[in-house]
Q: What sequence folds into this?
């Protein structure tokens, strides 16, 4: 049984995050992407395959070139996941701030 890739796997790797950043600005051909990294073209091809399987990029053939275009809608899933933890920690830090402010107001010395 083949494991299904998800967007979290795609963004787990710094090279893939850099590729997403590149193609988010403008569609880019595979050779240009490969030239920007100090890894083999085979490694870049694997990164692109993973990004495509996760739905973060699409690839079009234009003549002899393969053009990668960002499909960033799937990043909403990551944003939702991060937001829940941001809210959790904001509440915890606000509670700590209130506690420390109350200590200051009570003139308690430690």
A:
């Amino acid at each position: 049984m083949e494991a299904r890739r998800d967007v979290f796997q795609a963004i787990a790797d710094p090279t893939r995050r850099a590729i997403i950043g590149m193609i988010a600005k403008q569609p880019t051909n595979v050779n240009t992407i490969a030239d920007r990294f100090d890894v083999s073209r085979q490694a870049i091809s694997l990164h692109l395959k993973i990004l495509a399987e996760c739905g973060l990029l699409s690839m079009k053939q234009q003549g002899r070139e393969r053009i990668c275009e960002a499909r960033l809608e799937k990043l909403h899933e990551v944003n939702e996941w991060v937001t829940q933890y941001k809210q959790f920690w904001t509440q915890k830090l606000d509670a700590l701030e209130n506690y420390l402010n109350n200590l200051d107001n009570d003139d308690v010395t430690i």
Summary: Residues 7-73 form a domain with the Arc Repressor Mutant, subunit A fold (CATH 1.10.10.10). Residues 20 and 73 are 12 Å apart (CA to CA). The mean pLDDT is 91.
